[in-house]
């Protein structure tokens, strides 16, 4: 038996009252790719951040190559040969690639010799691992795929023998993801040890040697990848049998509710995010938008929800909607019977420091039903909140708690209750189950389908292909601001959608 | 999950911060060779021991209520309005123009007009920084600081070159006519045999300030605009989602803030000096920051904190009169209060949260 | 010729008046480039001005005074660091507190120490920085044009003036040519990048705040022991804020900072010499000159003349995610 490259023994970590990691032990053999899989919020990133010295464990030991190692900060982790590529890259955007790689690993006080040396070494690394980047480009001039390479190069430049990657494919197209795993494969063949955090079963099955499963801060199992299967891993992840399919009757699409023509969106930095798309959503159907994060889906939803201006034309029930200027904000959209469950409930859908009952009015606070004379009718609002809490089974059932005191699933239930109970003509839904526990996922999915069955139009955006498949009556795929194609769920599969998501268009796909 | 109960956040933390500021102030007094206990005694008798003392304490408090509310309203929209001083100066200009240019028949009408003028002038002075923040992203803290200096230069120009009566060397306006003099506490509460608040500047503006507290409370916690201001203050992206315009809220919150700061002028210019002089604000705009921080941006808290600072100001003046401790002691105390309740908030908060957390764990 | 003499005199006075601005501006540059906003420059200068004058008066040594001034300014810097780095407090509020603290403490201590109404005794002899005369300054004075420029404008300032202007290229070099500069700029843009690269964010930021303290200390000492002869109440008179304005004006770049400070120094020099300026019938009141640095800064901030974009992480305490 070889000495494990990494051994964690009994790691525990709490953030205030939240126990993120509970007594976790794990062992990874050198020269292997080890996957850590679990739902959002299972504690995967926390565990790896502890290994990288970004957080400090409350309890537990870290052993590197058979010797007990204290990792109080990232410097110690680097010294122990650990490198980490975070989910959100840690790059200085207005520095060049070279400066980013050198930062923190300079030789001596003057910059010029450090940069010259790094340039030379970078060339060698590039050739060794086929990791090509232009060292003189600024980070904000290169794409996310390139930025990820810079992060990997940063680790290799620091002589990392152990490389941790946190959700590395979240922002990549399937093709870019494949390329990444080829690079990782090559690193493994050079004897490096790699840990990949992901919540995607497919990546685990295809690329790892061993896999650990985490659930609610605990390690539920560590197995050899060859000896397991996706169903088993999924059960270990969520703790019980998963119903991947939502029970629903076939859709009965009616008249068009939302008609989008040549819609373009340019963000505040002047980058065109949505590039002239056409899309129709009919009454009584759920149209799902699939795509890798960052391909314009968010911006599409935001324009429809009145959060940012756009160009082109949108009609709701035949009536044109303004896309900029007066009458195009969120208040106007609500008045036009468009409800919106936003992608990020913590930053958008809720005010985390407001009470639940205040949040139930959020966006509808100008509704005359909540008004009495000059003031808001808080009593009416609280009564309304109680009804919604009861109907949507929000726990704990207490309107006098601030939004941040609820779990992710219950926060989302508050948002969904608020929006669905408005009985809108069109419901916009972004990432409805991100960071939501499995029980709440089922509940929320059922509510969305129920609204459809009442003959309402629903536009769903999700980066979870599984969710798109199980909810949508029609699927549109977005890539680089374009809609690459529309498919019926029964007539397509993940492989075809994957190609569309990568920008490979055409009937042949 | 809440880390600690709300009362601890609202009551305990300010009290501990105040205690720390007090202890340090006592050390400062000791260090300059005076007796802190004696100093406190002197301050209490001087500021609270007579109706005269109270008359000064409440006069100062009135200023601080207005400027404290001004800072507090802006805080709710997560805007740091450091320009209360300049806005109050401009408010004074508005009051002076109104009082000098119209022959008012009675002080009641004049007070209403002066309120309006001070609010408009104060709001106008806040409007440019507000617009620049909302539309151009210029940092409001820097622009309001700059506007304080610009206001000082502008007021200086107006008093020296424009509004100074002929023949006068003093950079000040003429005295306001008798008809616009506001009733002082002395005239309001004294009877023939018992004269109280003799010679003290506290006047009817104090009650206007209390009214302002109530109005601001209702505005922030009971109206839709207040809801929007608070929502925007907590989360800008959230506000955009809900269709609350950041531009609109930024500008409205700053206009209200500027108007409140400007209103201070009905107390110090119309109620006390009865003419506009240079430096009439005496730093009250800045004390508003300490008052708002200490009062946790709640009008009732602002009221209490303003009374406390009124006491400090009057007590400090008495100290300077009877001991060798200069008035600047108050500035030091004010700095310490801002430091502990504002910048070092976490120093007090973090250990407290730990204590409450361990209590909770023990209870479970 | 008379115009030329006046011009030289005004420029000479510009250099003197720009010096404290420049020192404070560069101080702010280090701090803000590292992501720590500092509106407490004024307070630090004031504290330094008092302690340098006090110690110089007591010991008779201006050098000891300078050290004391730097020390006092560093204490306030440490406080700012404690509040905004260690306890992740609001940097602006901390700056406001420091300004008041300095404003109150200087008078309080001055009164209990010297009993002269918040002043220090006047400094003379070794208690002040004397002008340094360049070689042949007197001999060359008579040479037309070059003479006055050399002997009036360039020669005859105190050592601190030359130090301040030497700090401009030095700062540029540190910022853009050294490891420390790279890390300093990085920590102001994205502290998480610095942290995960194994460099201490707290250490870097404290270093930046300390440099800020030293430079503010020199600026304050210059005010009390070179520009004037002793400390008087509130003697900084808003210079810390003008320096802040210059920093924004210069968009956080060293060479531009020098030009901005010279411009603002020139405005002060003109206001000091001419009071109201008569431009062929149109009289520009002195108050306009007083307000001009602030007005210009607002115009720059408004982005009508090139946008001033501060370091991206500026003003935000560094909290690891969660």
TrEMBL record, chain A:
One of its GO terms (cellular component) is plasma membrane. Its main location: membrane. One of its GO terms (molecular function) is ATP binding. It is a peripheral membrane protein. It is found in: Cell membrane. Belongs to the ABC transporter superfamily. This is Nucleoside ABC transporter ATP-binding protein.
TrEMBL record, chain B:
It is found in: Cell membrane. Keywords: Cell membrane, Membrane, Transmembrane, Transmembrane helix. It comes from Ruegeria conchae. PANTHER family: ABC TRANSPORTER, PERMEASE PROTEIN, GUANOSINE ABC TRANSPORTER PERMEASE PROTEIN NUPP. CDD domains: TM_PBP1_transp_TpRbsC_like. It comes from the Bacteria. It is a multi-pass membrane protein. This is Nucleoside ABC transporter membrane protein. GO terms for molecular function: transmembrane transporter activity. Its main location: membrane. GO terms for cellular component: plasma membrane. The chain crosses the membrane at residues 12-33, 53-75, 87-104, 110-128, 140-160, 195-220, 240-264, 302-323, 329-348.
Automatic annotation (TrEMBL), chain C:
The chain crosses the membrane at residues 47-80, 92-114, 159-176, 197-224, 257-276, 282-305. GO terms for cellular component: plasma membrane. It is found in: Cell membrane. Pfam families: BPD_transp_2. CDD domains: TM_PBP1_transp_TpRbsC_like. It is a multi-pass membrane protein. Keywords: Cell membrane, Membrane, Transmembrane, Transmembrane helix. GO terms for molecular function: transmembrane transporter activity. InterPro entries: ABC_transp_permease. Its main location: membrane. The keyword Cell membrane applies. PANTHER family: GUANOSINE ABC TRANSPORTER PERMEASE PROTEIN NUPQ, SUGAR ABC TRANSPORTER INTEGRAL MEMBRANE PROTEIN-RELATED. This is Nucleoside ABC transporter membrane protein.
């Amino acid at each position: 038996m070889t000495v494990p490259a990494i051994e964690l023994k009994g790691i525990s970590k709490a953030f205030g009252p939240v126990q993120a990691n509970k007594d976790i032990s794990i062992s990874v053999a050198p020269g292997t790719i080890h996957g850590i899989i679990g739902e959002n919020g299972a504690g995967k990133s926390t565990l790896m951040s502890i290994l990288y010295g970004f957080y400090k464990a409350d309890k537990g030991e870290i052993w590197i190559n058979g010797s007990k190692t204290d990792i109080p900060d990232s410097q110690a982790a680097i010294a122990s040969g650990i490198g980490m590529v975070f989910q959100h890259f840690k790059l200085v955007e207005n520095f060049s690639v070279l400066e980013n790689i050198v930062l923190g690993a300079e030789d001596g006080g003057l910059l010029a010799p450090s940069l010259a040396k790094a340039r030379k070494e970078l060339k060698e690394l590039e050739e060794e691992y086929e990791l090509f980047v232009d060292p003189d480009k600024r980070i904000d001039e290169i794409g996310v795929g390139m930025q990820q390479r810079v992060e990997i190069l940063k680790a290799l430049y620091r002589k990392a023998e152990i490389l941790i990657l946190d959700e590395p494919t979240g922002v990549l197209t399937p093709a870019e993801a494949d390329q990444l795993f080829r690079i990782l494969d090559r690193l493994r063949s050079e004897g490096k040890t790699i840990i990949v955090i992901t919540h995607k079963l497919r990546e685990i099955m295809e690329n790892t040697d061993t896999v650990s499963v985490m659930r609610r801060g605990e390690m539920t199992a560590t197995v050899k990848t060859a000896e397991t299967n996706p169903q088993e891993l999924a059960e270990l992840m969520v703790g019980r049998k998963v119903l991947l399919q939502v029970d629903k009757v076939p859709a009965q699409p009616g008249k068009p509710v939302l008609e989008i023509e040549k819609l373009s969106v340019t963000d505040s930095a002047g980058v065109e995010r949505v590039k002239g798309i056409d899309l129709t959503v009919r009454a009584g159907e759920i149209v799902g938008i699939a795509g890798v994060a960052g391909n314009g889906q968010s911006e599409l939803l935001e324009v429809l929800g009145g959060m940012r201006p756009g160009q082109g034309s949108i009609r709701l029930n035949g009536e044109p909607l303004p896309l900029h200027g007066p009458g195009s904000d969120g208040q106007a959209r609500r008045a036009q019977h468009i409800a919106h469950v936003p992608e990020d409930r913590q930053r958008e859908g809720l005010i985390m420091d407001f009470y639940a009952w205040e949040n139930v009015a959020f966006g509808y606070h100008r509704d005359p039903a909540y008004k009495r004379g000059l003031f808001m009718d808080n009593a009416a609002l609280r009564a309304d909140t109680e009804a919604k809490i009861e109907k949507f089974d929000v726990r704990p059932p207490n309107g006098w708690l601030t939004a941040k005191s609820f779990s992710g699933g219950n926060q989302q239930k508050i948002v969904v209750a608020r929006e669905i109970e408005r009985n809108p003509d069109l419901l916009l839904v972004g990432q409805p189950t991100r960071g939501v526990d499995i029980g709440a996922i089922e509940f929320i999915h059922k509510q969305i389908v129920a609204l459809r069955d009442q003959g309402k139009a629903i536009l769903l955006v999700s980066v979870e292909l599984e969710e798109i498949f199980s909810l949508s009556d029609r699927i549109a795929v977005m890539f680089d601001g374009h809609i690459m194609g529309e498919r019926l769920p029964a007539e397509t599969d993940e492989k075809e959608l994957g190609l569309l998501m990568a920008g490979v268009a055409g009937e042949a796909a | 999950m809440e880390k600690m109960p709300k009362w601890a956040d609202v009551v305990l933390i300010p009290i501990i911060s105040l205690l720390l500021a007090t202890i340090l102030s006592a050390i400062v007094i000791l260090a300059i060779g005076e007796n802190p206990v004696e100093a406190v005694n002197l301050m209490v008798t001087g500021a609270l021991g007579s109706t005269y003392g109270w008359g000064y304490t409440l006069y100062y408090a009135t200023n601080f209520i207005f400027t404290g509310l001004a800072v507090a309203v802006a805080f709710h929209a997560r805007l740091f309005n450091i320009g209360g001083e300049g806005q109050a100066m401009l408010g004074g200009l508005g009051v002076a123009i109104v009082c000098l240019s119209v022959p008012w028949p009675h002080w009641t009408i004049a007070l209403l007009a002066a309120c309006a003028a001070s609010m408009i002038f104060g709001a106008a002075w806040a409007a440019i920084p507000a617009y620049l923040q909302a539309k151009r992203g210029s940092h409001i803290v820097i622009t309001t600081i700059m506007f304080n200096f610009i206001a000082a230069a502008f007021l200086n120009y107006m008093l020296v070159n424009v509004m100074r009566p002929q023949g006068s060397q003093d950079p000040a306006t003429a005295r306001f006519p008798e008809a616009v003099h506001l009733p002082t506490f002395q005239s309001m509460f004294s009877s023939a045999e018992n004269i109280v608040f003799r010679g003290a500047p506290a006047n009817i503006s104090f009650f206007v300030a209390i009214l302002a507290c109530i109005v601001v409370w209702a505005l922030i916690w009971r109206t839709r605009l207040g809801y929007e201001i608070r929502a925007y203050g907590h989360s800008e992206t959230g506000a955009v989602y809900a269709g609350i315009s950041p531009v609109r809220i930024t500008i409205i919150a700053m206009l209200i803030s500027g108007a409140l700061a400007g209103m201070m002028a009905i107390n110090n210019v119309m109620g006390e000096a009865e003419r506009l002089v240079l430096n009439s604000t005496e730093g009250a705009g800045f004390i508003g920051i300490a008052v708002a921080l200490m009062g946790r941006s709640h009008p009732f808290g602002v009221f209490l904190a303003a009374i406390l600072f009124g006491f400090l100001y009057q007590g400090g003046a008495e100290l300077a009169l009877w001991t060798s401790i200069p008035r600047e002691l108050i500035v030091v105390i004010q700095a310490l209060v801002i430091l502990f309740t504002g910048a070092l908030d976490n120093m007090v908060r973090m250990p407290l949260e730990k204590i409450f957390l361990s209590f909770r764990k023990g209870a479970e | 010729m008379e115009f030329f003499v006046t011009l030289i005199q005004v420029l000479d006075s510009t250099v003197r008046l720009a010096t404290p601005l420049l020192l404070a501006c560069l101080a702010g540059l280090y701090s803000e480039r590292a992501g720590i906003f500092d509106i407490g420059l004024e307070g630090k200068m004031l504290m330094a001005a008092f302690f340098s004058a006090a110690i110089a008066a007591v010991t008779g040594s201006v050098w000891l005074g300078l050290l004391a001034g730097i020390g006092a300014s560093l204490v306030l810097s440490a406080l700012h660091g404690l509040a905004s780095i260690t306890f992740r407090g609001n940097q602006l509020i901390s700056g406001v507190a420091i300004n008041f603290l300095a404003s109150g403490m200087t008078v309080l201590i001055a009164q209990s120490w010297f009993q002269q109404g918040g002043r220090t005794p006047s400094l003379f002899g070794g208690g002040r920085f004397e002008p340094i005369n360049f070689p042949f300054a007197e001999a060359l004075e008579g040479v037309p044009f070059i003479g006055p420029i050399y002997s009036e404008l360039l020669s005859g300032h105190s050592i601190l003036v030359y130090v301040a202007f030497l700090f401009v290229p030095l700062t540029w070099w540190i910022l853009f040519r050294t490891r420390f500069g790279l890390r300093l700029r990085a920590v102001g843009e994205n502290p998480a990048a610095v942290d995960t690269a194994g460099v201490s964010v707290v250490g870097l930021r404290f270093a930046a705040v300390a440099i800020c303290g030293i430079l503010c200390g020199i600026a304050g000492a210059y005010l009390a022991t070179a520009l004037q002869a002793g400390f008087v109440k509130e003697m900084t008179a808003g210079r810390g804020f003008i320096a802040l304005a210059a920093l924004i004006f210069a968009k956080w770049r060293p060479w531009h900072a020098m030009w901005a400070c010279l411009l603002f120094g020139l405005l002060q020099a003109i206001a000091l010499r001419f009071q109201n300026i008569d431009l062929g019938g149109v009289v520009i009141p002195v108050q306009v000159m007083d307000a001009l640095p602030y007005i210009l800064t607002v115009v720059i901030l408004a982005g009508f003349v090139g946008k001033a974009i501060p370091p991206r992480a500026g003003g935000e305490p560094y909290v690891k995610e969660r």
